[in-house]
Write a structure and sequence with these properties.
By secondary structure, the chain is an alpha+beta fold. Helices cover about 15% and strands about 35% of the residues. The longest helix has about 60 residues.
């Protein structure tokens, strides 16, 4: 029996060694990250380590650390050097590669001066030739704030109100009241808020009615780190409120007086509020009228100073899944096009195109120009419905999967998941309504590209102070069933949009202000 067990163990060991030898003889590898979350204090430095198995020299590989999306690069190492062009702005100057053991397949990215925004999930991606693997890491950034500080507010509801405050915590701490015997006391209320840096401020309240509880403690504990801070307060018995035989009589009298005074105050307040409301309504009407007049003047000035361009589409630049109209003024999707094109699906697959785009035949190297387009998203608009309108460099790469951002030579206004956005911000643009007809104004000399709602004249967004040193072309991309783009005549008549249908449904964005202030975004050259 013992001999048979020994033979089985030797056979398993031989199989494992054979598997290891087969892996060493091929290019296959695994990427391994820490099995537990990396916990680090706010403001300190930390490292995100990864290694390959079996151990090998990874100097010639592409190494990438990123957040939830592949394009959200924290650090990129390729062709033996750092690639800062793909790095997120938040990590520029704050991330470096630790490569002391790169020849053994062990590397890490060091992040300096941790911020609350650094908290979350990361991925490390290693690619060698056509083989690539990745591993997931979790970084927990913690902040041990000040406090708790316990204060005795005063008598309330037959007891003494206590408050416990703390600030500068992350994540939100666990608050617990206890008496002198260590028994837990539930909080009456807990209020928390986050400051501009994402740190939590906490205020918990408690009313102590039992005069025997002369000592009460408040503790705050970080749920990840387990570190706890405690402060205790002593309450003299004389501070607890005592009942008085006159209390009931005084309470009844004050109650009647309170009702009478409250009624008088309420009537006076109601009259003042009504007058104030009427004044505010009148002011709002005047402001709205002035705003419309200013918008009209600005748009009229632009249409006077900018040259109207009769843009036509270039069929030779169109994606094979796009159809161009005979007069080259409209583009729409061909049927049976896959709709769920996502960057993660096409990662590493240059032959699969996820963006369906086309250029205008016109090109610009100087002067002021403008054109108008109408985008229809159809009645079957869904999460996969997307479009982009703007300009791009004639040298921008549009084959395979690409991202429409200024660093790649694209300055565009995009629609995705029911919101209008620009690639320089993750926030959606807050507009009163979806712009059915969009004016694109290009000022080459001043480096300005502006988008306007040509129906109500409101300003949508502007790229300003852009250094333009190459040829630019009108750019359009679309995705989703029923989506189409129509180039309009630049007159004020909305009927001059060929092929535009009055029955086409329009998805409205969330309500907001009439206009959005211009945003100055220094952008890279195409």
């Amino acid at each position: 029996m013992v001999g048979s067990l020994d033979f089985s163990a030797l056979r398993d060991l031989f199989s494992i060694l054979l598997l290891q030898v087969s892996m060493w003889g091929s290019d296959s590898f695994l990427v391994i990250g820490p099995s537990e979350p990396i916990v680090a204090m706010l403001g300190t430095d930390t490292v995100l380590p990864c290694r390959v198995s079996p151990a090998m020299n990874v100097e010639s590989m592409e190494l990438r650390w990123f957040r939830s999306q592949f394009s959200e690069a924290v650090y990129v190492y390729k062709d033996g050097m750092e690639q800062v062009g793909e790095q997120l702005v938040d990590f520029k100057g704050r991330a470096e590669l630790v490569k002391d053991y790169i020849t053994e397949g062990r590397v890490a990215v060091r992040i300096y001066g941790l911020r609350i925004s650094d908290n979350g999930i990361y991925k490390c991606f290693f690619q060698k030739g056509s083989d690539y693997e990745e591993a997931t890491l979790e970084l927990k950034v913690i902040g041990l704030g000040s406090g708790p500080r316990v204060f005795m507010v005063g008598p309330e509801d037959k007891g003494i109100r206590l408050t416990c405050t703390g600030k500068g915590w992350f994540p939100q701490p666990e608050v617990q009241w206890t008496d002198a015997r260590g028994e837990k006391i539930p909080s009456l209320s807990e209020d928390e808020n986050q400051d501009d840096d994402g740190l939590f401020q906490i205020e918990a309240s408690l009313i102590v009615r039992d005069s025997s509880k002369t000592e009460v403690s408040c503790s705050m504990k970080n749920p990840f780190f387990g570190r706890e801070q405690v402060e205790t307060i002593s309450i003299p018995e004389s501070f607890f409120p005592r009942t008085s035989p006159w209390k009931g009589a005084f309470a009844g009298t004050f109650f009647i007086l309170g009702i009478f005074l409250g009624a008088v105050v309420f009537l006076a307040w109601k009259e003042r509020q009504e007058k104030k409301r009427l004044r505010e309504v009148q002011k709002e009407k005047e402001k709205e009228s002035e705003a419309k007049e200013l918008l009209k003047k600005e748009l009229d000035w632009r249409k006077e100073k900018f040259k109207a361009v009769a843009v036509t589409l270039d069929p030779d630049s169109a994606h094979r899944n796009l159809t161009i109209s005979e007069n080259k003024k409209q583009v729409f999707l061909t049927g049976n096009v896959p709709q769920h094109c996502d960057a993660s699906v096409y990662q590493g697959q240059e032959e699969s195109e996820a963006v369906f785009s086309v250029l205008g035949q016109n090109s610009f190297q100087t002067g002021r120009h403008y054109w108008e387009v109408e985008v229809n998203i159809g009645t079957d608009a869904g999460p996969e419905t997307k479009w982009a309108v703007g300009v791009c460099s004639d040298s921008a790469r549009r084959n395979g999967w690409f991202v429409e951002i200024p660093e790649n030579g694209f300055w565009v206004l995009t629609y995705k998941e029911g919101d209008l956005k620009v690639p320089t911000s993750s926030e959606s643009l807050s507009l009163r309504q979806h712009p059915q007809r969009i004016g694109v104004f290009l000022d080459w000399k001043d480096g300005d590209l502006s988008f306007y709602n040509m129906v109500d004249g409101s300003h949508i967004f502007s790229f300003t102070k852009v250094t333009l040193c190459k040829t630019l072309c009108p750019y359009f991309s679309l995705q989703g069933a029923g989506t189409s783009v129509t180039i309009c005549s630049t007159s004020d008549d909305t009927e001059n949009c060929p092929y535009s249908s009055p029955n086409t449904s329009v998805t409205h964005l969330r309500s907001g202000d009439m206009g959005v202030p211009r945003e100055a975004n220094p952008l890279l050259s195409a």
